[in-house]
Write a structure and sequence with these properties.
homotrimer; about 325 residues; mainly alpha; 2 domains; transmembrane helix (chains A, B, C); potassium transport (chains A, B, C); ion transport (chains A, B, C); transport (chains A, B, C)
Chain lengths: ~325, ~325, ~325
């Protein structure tokens, strides 16, 4: 029985691994990406003022991962443009979503059931992109785990990682926030995927490639669906993250007592540690500043910059991917 | 008679195609570029405070196209520096225009007749740069029209396209505006040239290369001269642009009625469609916001960002190229 | 006697040239770099909010030169990550300095005697990095002096030159200042080193490589130690810079009288010419604006931007390297 189950899973994972992304899954990725752009504040204004900037922004949403990993590997960032069919497909979808008469296309795709299916399909492409990045990096840098993780991550979550510069195309500049300072769920799950696939490719993870593809794909699709249905933005990693953070990054510094306390509050409300750090009451902020006074060292003035605080407090920005 | 005319044109275009840009036309390009930098607000201050930042900025004005197309094709952006003669020439011109005793050089070159000749010569180099970019891209990406257009455009209008980062060198940061959001005339005419030369090189445009070079060069030189003499900044493409925009980018969305109306107003005043979009009266802006209320979709909050508005309203910046 | 001195120096310089940077000097470089990051305003906050952004920032401090010179030569900017041992070493040091229990490591390294030794060792790595950049550039671009200087400079002072983008990782954006507008001492001394080593490599400077290495290393170590002990930030080049500036960049323009006067004031106070330009009294600023009114030319409005002034006045930022 167990063997049968294994065999069945094996067949399923082989089937999945041989799935072609090209027409349908890629289309779903383009549709969901362009819709995410359209829902950014100010994006509709830009689409009326300058269709070219809007198109370029859309292409960065659709091909951001390829552009970023290209730059990181010193390959032409213009290369995605050379794949005429993909660019044509993405451009048609961009046109239909932004400028379709009666706004028919956007109205349809924004319906929850269709959106759910499309988002699920988009998540499937993530597996392929992360794996593509990892194997590409492995060809150039044999067994360099860090490079493999970096390229896999960049390829899978590129749109989010370059969001500062994508926004600049639309005339928006928000330096106080970026995906490294405050990771969104897609960026986190892509990083996890990049780590897993890199470990698998270097044989540190004793798992077949197609099995890992199946497990990872099911995990991200189920999670995305759950998050869309419940409307919750809580990450499934919150407890692990919180534990890791507590174990590694608090030390016994003048900060420690404070951040520990903050964390307890954070996990109680089941929000990620990062949000927890931001959710400081005025009182605890005063504690923190008084704590800093203790830590003033001869070498340099340790002051809290108002900008960094702004950064940790800015929570309004909707994330790409 | 017609044949003779053709033959004569043929000779002329062959002569033009064999023209060497090197000493004189390149010099004109450097002079006009460095003068454009000097006339940027704050540039003279920077030239006194940090000659090095001023020199680097000048080099980006002079070689911006080569740098940008280099980055896009993953070729060393430092390569233009390796052409010692060109850099030396550009540096001498930079020095004379910014620091010449008695300001003799700038005073002379700023005289209208000389400036007219120099600007005309600079426009001639545009043809060569666009064609150079297109053929370079064709070598790497055979028949990929989009890459050829992108590289030709980047090489011809590079200084303008990277202006945000060029300004950063001088300590100026204007994220709310860029050449994609609000194209200046040189950027537009270069894009048109890149499209034409790419079509010619892939044989979609049944025209000889040297004929196209002649026609395009005459067009840009005549236009530049006309614009400098009349002081008008109206683009010769305004009617075509407006028609294209109306046909393609208005759709029947809640915006359509409004943008159509705006456009009529825009073309009446013979300003480009982009300016038209910005020249909204307070009343029409209220219309627009009420229009947006209609288009509020279930998927995401469509709000107009104040930044994007700022972007479309900012009209003070003088453009490079 | 003189011969003996020469021989002795020769041996010493050979010994120095064969010194391996790897474990100890590299470690000192990482420690001093990460400490410099920790002492940036707001950096400690970032280290609590997002350890990943903090780690990435630290890596840019440690490997910024390799990343920047990689980008400039179209080599993968991700390459430094492929050197696992160095990244591991730098990461351990990052972890100990930011998160060590009781803050033991930072408290120790911040003690003046230890810090003095570490800073001296870090300066030694500068020689190796500059020379590495120059020889790397020479392999690709034979005899192109400018490229060699640029790459040598980028490799030696990379962290400082990309500081705007490093700050962006931490959510800080200060466009009004950069290392080109207002060079810090490490950036200046690295530029000087890049010029010297480039001249030596192209045989314009009649000196043996290992002799130059010895002299340059001694110069930067002694200078750094002197600056740390006296707490002075005055550059040893101030008089030369001031003389060069006066000779080359003042011309007889409407500005000249003014800047000359400013300079005298500047050198009297034994501060660099750049500071001098900024240290204008209100009165001289009025002079300057009235001077500008004279220079108003037909070609363009020469206005002083408030941003550029801000830039020259901003002096609070602590510099990298």
């Amino acid at each position: 029985m167990d063997l049968f189950g294994m065999l069945y899973l094996d067949e399923l994972s082989h089937g999945l691994a041989n799935l072609s992304m090209f027409p349908y899954f890629d289309m779903a990725h383009y549709i969901v990406s362009v819709m995410a752009l359209r829902e950014q504040p100010g994006a509709l204004d830009v689409s009326r003022v300058s269709p070219l900037a809007c198109w370029f922004s859309s292409m960065l949403y659709c091909f951001g991962g390829a552009v970023l990993s290209g730059i990181m590997l010193a390959e032409p960032p213009v290369a995605p443009l050379s794949n005429g069919t993909s660019v044509l497909l993405a451009s048609i979808i961009w046109y239909l979503i932004f400028y379709c008469p009666m706004d028919v296309v956007y109205s349809c795709t924004a319906l929850l059931p269709l959106r759910l299916v499309l988002s699920g399909m988009k998540e499937v492409t993530r597996t392929w992109k992360v794996l593509g990045g990892v194997t590409l990096a492995q060809k150039k840098y044999k067994d360099s785990l860090l490079v493999m993780i970096a390229i896999g991550w960049a390829r899978g979550a590129g749109g989010g990682l370059i969001s500062n510069f994508e926004q600049l195309v639309r005339g928006v500049w928000k330096p106080e926030t970026n995906e490294l300072l405050k990771m969104s769920y897609p960026t986190k799950v892509t990083l996890m995927g990049a780590v897993l696939f890199s470990l698998q490719q270097t044989h540190y993870l004793p798992l077949q490639k197609h099995h890992l593809m199946l497990f990872y794909t099911i995990f991200i699709v189920v999670n995305k669906t759950r998050m869309m249905l419940t409307g919750s933005s809580s990450s499934p990693f919150a407890p692990i993250e919180s534990a890791l953070y507590k174990a590694l990054f608090t030390g016994y510094s003048p900060y420690a007592a404070l951040t520990g306390e903050l964390h307890k509050a954070g996990t109680d409300n089941s929000i990620t540690n990062r949000t927890a750090c931001c959710g400081t009451t005025k009182e605890s902020k005063e504690n923190r500043s008084s704590g800093q006074n203790h830590s003033s060292s001869p070498g340099g003035g340790v002051e809290s910059s108002p900008k960094a605080k702004e950064a940790s407090e800015a929570e309004d920005s909707k994330k790409i991917n």
